[in-house]
Write a structure and sequence with these properties.
Number of helices: 5
Oligomer: single chain
Protein name: TnpV protein
Number of strands: 2
Distance between the termini: 39 Å
Radius of gyration: 22 Å
Number of domains: 1
Helix content: 55-70%
Pfam family, one: TnpV
Order of helices and strands: EEHHHHH
Strand order of the largest sheet: 1-2
Amino acid sequence: MTNTKITYTQQGDYLLPDLKLPEQPKVEIGIFGKRRLRYLERNRNILYTNLLTKGKLTAYLTDIDEQAENMFDRLVRQLAEREGVTEQLKAENQMLWVKKMNSIRNRAEEIVNHELIYN
C-alpha cells in the first residue's frame, strides 16, 4: 500500500487539496496527433480529461499519430498506383506529376482525418 498523504492550501475560507496530474513522458507528437489533441479538447472533453488524469494522453496521441501516418502513407501509395502516377511520369512531366501527387496527398489526408482524427 502506498502512502498518499494529501496536503491542502488555504484559499480564503476553504482548504483545497493540492492535486497534481501524473507526469507525461516528453514525446514529439506529429501533425495527426496534434490534430487529434485539438479535437479531443474541443469536442470530446470527457475522453480528453480521462486520458489526461490517468496519465495516458501522450501514449494515446502517439499511437493515433503512428496509425494515421501509416494509413496516410499506404493510401498515397495505393492511390498513386491506381492512377498511374509513377517515377516515369515524374521524369517525363514533373508539373503533371506534382499536380497529381498533391491531389492524391490531399485526398489521403481527408480520409485519414475522417477515419481516425475527427471520429
